[in-house]
Known about the structure:
Elements: E1 5-10, H1 17-26, E2 33-37, H2 50-55, H3 66-77, E3 82-85, E4 98-101, E5 106-110, H4 118-121, E6 126-131, H5 134-148, H6 153-172, E7 181-184, H7 190-208
Parallel strand pairs: 1-5, 1-6, 2-5, 6-7
Antiparallel strand pairs: 3-4
Helix pairs in contact: 5-6
Amino acid sequence: MQKPFIVGITGGSASGKTTFLHKLIDSFRPEDICLISQDNYYFPQPGLSKEENVLFNFDEPAAFDSHRYAGDILKLRQGKSFTCLEYTFNNPDVVPKELKFFPAPIIIVEGIFTFYFEEVANLLDLKVYIDAEEHVKMYRRIIRDKVERGYDLDDVLYKYLNHVVPAYEKFIKPYKQDADLIIPNNKQFERGLDVLVSYLNTKVQNFNS
């Protein structure tokens, strides 16, 4: 049986991974690509107050079930499907949906600790790092968390300076050197996207031949 080609995509928080991933996924037929997000593997943190939610560090590797994350990726590599609950940003008012994942020629594995988790990294055939300067990431994080998610600016800055930046320096940036492809994303990523899409199309053709 042909094995899928597994691509790991990482980068610092607010480096633009989500936008890049949407463009990447839209470049393929749905049956040719499957996306697995690390966010859906947070350990549950029920009952946190608003203040506790600010103080709790969601940007630590220990906040994630890396073993289950790796196990589900392995299932897809073995041609098996699976389901899991979507991550709802610890919002008790949102009922999580059951997400279904099916094997495909290309498996995209994304998350800030995708390279750091050894059992996940060992399953990757290609490592892609989305890069952006610190001031660009901070601006994007403020816009995302304050405008889109309704967080107070003080809370956004507290999390960024006390959780996001230390995690990036310790668990993400050191693994940039392991990347096969680094895509700068301070203003645009289209050229890097085109390179990756062209390469992955050859993998899809080989899989289907």
